[in-house]
């Protein structure tokens, strides 16, 4: 397939330079408001939880404050757990699922967990409904040192003093039809590589860490989410988005090697959720509820493991 046919920016076979990145940035349009739809809800939580501003990112004169929410009165004898969303800003239920969890369920764990929630890691991309940040960098491939994405670097700085203390981290994502129509073609064009079409799975699935898999943890989350929405089946090759299905609704990636957000801590229990919002069988409300169910199941599993003195 000729690359020029599947993405309008760049020269086939050649990675983008500054000119192509600038052209890409000029095409990005603001579709929604981080301040109104996300930040206002985070700041409203300050009456119940501790809201911290851990950084700021700016693109083309626009400034976005980065917020984290600490649930409960943290104590050294409680387990540390992390919930993140919006590392890909366009994945709506990752952000709104995290917010819904904070608004409706987080208080249930205030006396049991040192819980940190970062609902929207990439606010510029939230407004543009895009995967990348304003420099055409994927934050979810940038949790490495040094980081190529300022959003990822800011979260890494926030977590640095306590990142070894976490026992659980759940990172909330979506897989959308636009992964296939926009974001994967853009990635191939940006990197000067051919675009190879794939199939978007219909349903919820999880990504486990290939370097330290926790199948029981993943299946506990799958079981909880299956009460809310359907689980993605494997394709005809036994894969989901090109990776072998290792158990129902679960594939594996090497988190730290790929620089994924889910590998930002040393937690033994880690996962990435993937909701499918474009399914004819799911509503936006179901997608958000699926994220909340996943977070609660992850916390409950990790709490039970901690009470038994297990670390994986």
TrEMBL record:
InterPro entries: AstE_AspA_cat, Peptidase_M14. Residues 30-312 form the Peptidase M14 domain. GO terms for molecular function: hydrolase activity, acting on ester bonds; metallocarboxypeptidase activity; zinc ion binding. Keywords: Hydrolase, Metal-binding, Zinc. GO terms for biological process: proteolysis. The keyword Transmembrane helix does not apply. Its cofactor is Zn(2+). The keyword Ribosomal protein does not apply. Pfam families: AstE_AspA_cat (PF24827). It comes from the Bacteria. Belongs to the peptidase M14 family. This is Peptidase. It comes from Ahniella affigens.
């Amino acid at each position: 397939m000729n690359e020029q046919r599947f993405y309008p920016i760049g020269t086939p076979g050649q990675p983008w330079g500054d000119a192509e990145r600038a052209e890409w940035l000029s095409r990005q349009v603001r579709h929604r408001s981080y301040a109104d739809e996300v930040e206002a809800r985070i700041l409203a939580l300050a009456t119940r939880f501790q809201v911290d501003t851990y950084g700021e990112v700016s693109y083309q004169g626009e400034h976005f404050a980065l917020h984290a929410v600490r649930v409960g009165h943290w104590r050294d004898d409680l387990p540390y757990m992390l919930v993140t969303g919006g590392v890909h800003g366009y994945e709506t239920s990752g952000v709104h699922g995290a917010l819904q969890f904070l608004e409706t369920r987080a208080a249930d764990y205030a006396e049991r967990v040192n819980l940190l929630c970062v609902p929207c890691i990439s606010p510029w991309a939230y407004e543009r409904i895009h995967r990348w940040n304003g420099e055409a960098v994927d934050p979810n491939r940038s949790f490495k040192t040094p980081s190529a994405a300022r959003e990822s670097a800011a979260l890494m700085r926030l977590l640095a003093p306590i990142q070894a203390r976490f026992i659980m981290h759940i990172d909330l994502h979506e897989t959308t039809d636009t992964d296939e129509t926009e974001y994967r073609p853009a990635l191939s064009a940006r990197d000067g590589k051919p675009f190879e079409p794939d199939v978007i799975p219909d349903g919820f699935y999880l990504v486990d860490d290939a370097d330290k898999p926790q199948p029981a943890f993943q299946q506990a989350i799958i079981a909880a989410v299956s009460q809310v929405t359907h689980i993605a089946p494997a394709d005809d090759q036994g894969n989901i988005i090109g990776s072998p299905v290792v158990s129902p609704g679960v594939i594996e990636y090497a988190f730290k090697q790929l620089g994924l957000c889910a590998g930002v801590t040393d937690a033994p229990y880690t996962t990435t959720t993937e909701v499918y919002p474009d399914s004819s069988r799911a509503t936006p409300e179901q997608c958000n509820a699926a994220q909340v169910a996943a977070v609660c199941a992850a916390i409950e599993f990790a709490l039970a493991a901690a009470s038994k003195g297990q670390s994986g």
